[in-house]
Amino acid sequence: xxxxxxxxxxxxxxxxxxxxxxxxxxxxxxxxxxxxxxxxxxxxxxxxxxxxxxxxxxxxxxxxxxxxxxxxxxxxxxxxxxxxxxxxxxxxxxxxxxxxxxxxxxxxxxxxxxxxxxxxxxxxxxxxxxxxxxxxxxxxxxxxxxxxxxxxxxxxxxxxxxxxxxxxxxxxxxxxxxxxxxxxxxxxxxxxxxxxxxxxxxxxxxxxxxxxxxxxxxxxxxxxxxxxxxxxxxxxxxxxxxxxxxxxxxxxxxxx
Length: 256
Fold this sequence. Notes:
six-stranded mixed beta sheet, 25% strand
């Protein structure tokens, strides 16, 4: 088998020093007496090449944080930057194009098309965008996620962990500036979950990818470089070099 090296295969896009930056971001749903503020005055910087976990009790604003940071939802006030682009200034067609080309998504549900092979699922975003597939990069991504010998298999022929690897490869194939992962191990057993978390850690370390992961699991969060804690829509703390025990202790105080 031909040896694949990753030198020269990283994203060619010039990146700002920060992958994501939120400046005083607030998101309110509804109006008047029925208004609910899901995110309130959040300011945070996520460096490129970092792995950040976002945690908090139910209703703390974790999903809203991810949706605003990824350009899936517009904040009510404040500014969101993806690299050097102010997402809050973009019209919807440009925002859709930016998400497709510069952001990768991994969800708890693998969202694979059952009639397509693994490699066809991986390259689907490129085909939908009418973009050419960089064969060398595709091979590198498949190798990185350990799918080279499963590329021709359909989802039903793959384990849950392997299906999530396909989803991660699909998120990487467009060379995004940031990968957002929403409870990526939620549908997996503990062993498959550890393998997927190790893979996310690996793509940060080896490919310089930026990963932002929403999770409720202290063990999952311990794979990150930094954990951000939200409560009642506010950023209330963070941990660097987290351990599962320290994360669990902090969560206990937030939920108490």
